[in-house]
């Protein structure tokens, strides 16, 4: 791991545990074992450091989601596959949902840089699958709904368990194993909810 990557890894932990506003570049530098000047050399500002971390998560998430949206399998199964991908991605990177939530609360303007990519992905995905969804609805296999509503529900179902992790750790005092078990149960429940919500 390079020094730049070490700084980024330490910063990500700080942002996750303390939030964007309460994280200081001085603390990041001290924890990474470098000078404040070195952190500034690589990232110029706390905002640039935070955006670098956010970029690494957001763009890869969007790009890797594209091939999961299959058109050659059962429609409900395709929705479950997408929810599994979102869930597994967040499970491999449990800090990401909290980072996004913190940005929404404290600096929503930072998310403007992702608007175009997200809108492009959404319009492409909705456009590609909306006709298929309409055929499924007409054939009586899917309840009346829209691709927008489906994508919103999948994101909410997949992301919400990870937003609860700080509460489970700090208030409920669940162990890492208990949290893993909780997440495993939630992932199975999502497939059941999707089938129940959209199948006729």
Label this structure with key terms.
single chain, 200 residues, 10 helices, globular
Q: What's the Cα radius of gyration? A: 19 Å
Strand residue percentage? under 5%
User: Biggest sheet: strands, sense, closure?
Assistant: none
- Mean pLDDT over all positions: 88
Which residue ranges are poorly predicted, with pLDDT under 50 across at least 5 consecutive positions? Answer: none
What would your notes on this structure say?
It is a single chain. The chain is mostly helical. Helices cover 79% and strands 0% of the residues. It is built from ten helices and no strands. Helix 1 crosses helix 6. The radius of gyration is 19 Å and the shape is globular. It starts with a helix and ends with a helix. The mean pLDDT is 88.
Question: Nutshell version of this structure?
Answer:
The protein has 10 helices and no strands. It has 200 residues and is mainly alpha-helical. The mean pLDDT is 88.
């Amino acid at each position: 791991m390079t020094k730049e990557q070490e700084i980024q890894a330490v910063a990500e932990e700080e942002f996750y545990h303390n939030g964007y506003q309460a994280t200081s570049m001085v603390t990041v530098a001290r924890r990474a074992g470098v000078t404040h000047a070195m952190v500034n050399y690589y990232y110029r500002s706390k905002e640039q450091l935070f955006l670098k971390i956010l970029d690494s998560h957001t763009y890869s998430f969007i790009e890797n989601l594209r091939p999961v949206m299959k058109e050659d399998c059962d429609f409900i199964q395709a929705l479950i596959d997408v929810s599994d991908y979102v869930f597994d991605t967040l499970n491999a990177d449990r800090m990401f949902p909290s980072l996004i939530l913190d940005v929404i609360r404290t600096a929503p303007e930072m998310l403007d840089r992702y608007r175009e990519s997200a809108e492009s992905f959404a319009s492409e995905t909705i456009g590609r699958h909306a006709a298929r969804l309409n055929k499924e609805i007409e054939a009586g296999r899917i309840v009346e709904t829209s691709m927008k509503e489906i994508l919103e529900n999948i994101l909410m179902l997949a992301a919400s368990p990870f937003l609860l992790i700080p509460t489970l750790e700090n208030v409920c005092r669940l162990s890492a194993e208990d949290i893993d078990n909780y997440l495993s149960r939630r992932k199975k429940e999502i497939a059941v909810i999707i089938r129940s919500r959209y199948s006729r």
